Target: Ras-related protein Rab-30
Amino acid sequence: MDENTRNDFKYLFKILVIGDVGVGKTSLIRRFTKGYFAENITSTVGVCLDSKVVNISGEKVKLQCWDTAGREEYQTIIQSYYRNADAVIMMFDLTNQGSFASIPQWLVDVHRYTNKDAVKVLVGNKTDLKGARRMVNSRSAANLAEFEDLLYLETSAKWDDNIETLFTELAEQLRENAKTKTLNRMNETNNFLVRKSVSISSYIKRLGGKIPFQSVTNCCRVKGFLSS
Ligand SMILES: Nc1nc2c(ncn2[C@@H]2O[C@H](COP(=O)(O)OP(=O)(O)OP(=O)(O)O)[C@@H](O)[C@H]2O)c(=O)[nH]1
Ligand SMILES: [Mg+2]
Model:
């Protein structure tokens, strides 16, 4: 069994990749997970899944990449995938102005359906097509990203430009967020236990120090839990 299908990873994150038809969503995921690029590729139908395990500071992080169809008729089905996404990559084609102009519309769906903590990245793909073919300049894309509070990166699935950087940075950010969430949850549990023990001691005080049999059991249980 290869590393990507085994279950020995510490974190699992779901990354949803969206954007207009032909921007290179499938090519980007294929380059990252399988390490190759194909010129002739069929348009995606519905949603497909591919995964890869990356090593971040000695911890294994499994990235599940959800490749979606850009075609309009699939968007209703795809919306149900937004809710579980830890990160969303919104892609456009640097040689196709229309695909960049669609980003605000994709953002409407992202804001409507994704978890507010999801990491959002704007990706301009096909950097290998330079000169006159390029229709979107980096400044406009970076401005939009800044305004919408997105990370921004330019890639080429064909030339393998920035693909590893994109997914590694995403994995690092998601791992960091997961650690912070766990820490916050632990703090909340500790605060709850402290509040609970204070309320039990004030209850005993209110009883004038006389503890009914039932309360002694509860009190011991909480004490044992706190000291363990
Ligand atoms: N030159 C160049 N072509 C690319 C790049 N990425 C993808 N392509 C080409 O763009 C076309 C569309 O790529 P796909 O990966 O199928 O695009 P998609 O976004 O998955 O499209 P849908 O599945 O229809 O939504 C294909 O011919 C790819 O070979 C790139 O980085 N550079
Ligand atoms: Mg596709």
Remarks:
- The beta strands are 11-19, 47-56, 59-68, 87-93, 119-125, 151-155.
- The helical segments are 25-34, 75-82, 97-101, 103-113, 138-148, 163-206, 213-227.
- The radius of gyration is 24 Å.
- Confidence is low (pLDDT under 50) at residues 215-228.
